[in-house]
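Summary of Year 1 activities. Much of the first year was spent building the evaluation harness for sequence design. The harness presents a backbone, in tokenized form, and records the residue chosen at every position. We chose the following record to illustrate the format because it has been used consistently in internal testing since the harness was completed.
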């Protein structure tokens, strides 16, 4: 999918691996200047170099979304390096699989602090920057179909993603007045370096068979909704939740 993002600056959190890494490359390939943010800055350097070799432009910025001082410093640095922020891809997230009775307070807080609190602090900090510069923008939260339906052994994750979906809509309602659109993508099962071994197992293959399209998604399957929400093509969309899951969320099996 080709979208013109020339002149736009996109800040992508959790960009050192997985979906964030792919999102940064996709946005850069479509003309955006990318600010790639994550804790693992060594991996960000490789990402920035690969974008430059492909003819794009990107910067690397250290970020820990669970640390509000780090969030503020990241946004300030992004504005300093790129001149402002037009697009936020709130992607940073973790999952700690465990049964509800075995989930510790530490694990619960770690997931909430990253997946929900971190997304909130990033959204607010970037929105304040947009308002200060009198420029609108697009906030794209990366939720999950597990914010729309539940699964076992992920109590904190499903609660955080459901909260992120409601936060998306609450911010969309408020920030329409300052020309900031807030939408979310709810991916289904997407093959990444973190989960590829599990999806090769018998249990993983059984999970794939429950997806109506009978296949696991690839990061490229998210390019359509990502680029739509990042671009002016979605100028009349805010508060929308786009499921990209091969039909999994509507499967009653």
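For this record, the design step produced the sequence shown next.
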């Amino acid at each position: 999918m080709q979208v013109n993002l020339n002149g736009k600056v996109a800040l992508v959190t959790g960009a050192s691996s997985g979906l964030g890494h792919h999102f940064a490359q996709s946005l850069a390939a479509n003309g955006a200047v990318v600010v790639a943010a994550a804790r693992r800055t060594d991996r960000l350097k490789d990402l920035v170099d690969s974008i430059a070799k492909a003819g794009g432009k990107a910067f690397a910025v250290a970020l820990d979304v669970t640390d509000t001082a780090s969030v503020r410093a990241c946004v300030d640095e992004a504005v300093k390096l790129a001149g402002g922020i037009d697009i936020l891809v709130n992607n940073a997230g973790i999952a700690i699989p465990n049964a509800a009775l075995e989930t510790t307070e530490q694990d619960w807080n770690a997931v909430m602090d990253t997946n929900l609190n971190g997304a909130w602090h990033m959204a607010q900090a970037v929105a304040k920057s947009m308002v200060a510069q009198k420029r609108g923008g697009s906030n794209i939260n990366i939720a999950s179909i597990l914010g729309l339906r539940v699964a076992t052994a992920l109590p904190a994750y499903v609660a955080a993603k459901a909260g992120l979906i409601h936060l998306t809509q609450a911010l969309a309602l408020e920030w329409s007045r300052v020309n900031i659109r807030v939408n979310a993508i709810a991916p289904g099962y997407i093959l990444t370096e973190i989960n590829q071994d599990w999806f090769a197992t018998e249990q993983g293959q059984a999970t794939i068979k429950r997806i109506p399209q009978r296949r696991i998604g690839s990061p490229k399957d998210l390019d359509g909704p990502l680029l739509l929400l990042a671009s002016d093509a979605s100028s009349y969309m805010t508060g929308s939740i786009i499921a990209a899951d091969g039909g999994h969320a509507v499967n009653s099996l």
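The chain has eight helices and seven strands. Quantitative recovery figures across the full test set are reported in Table 2.
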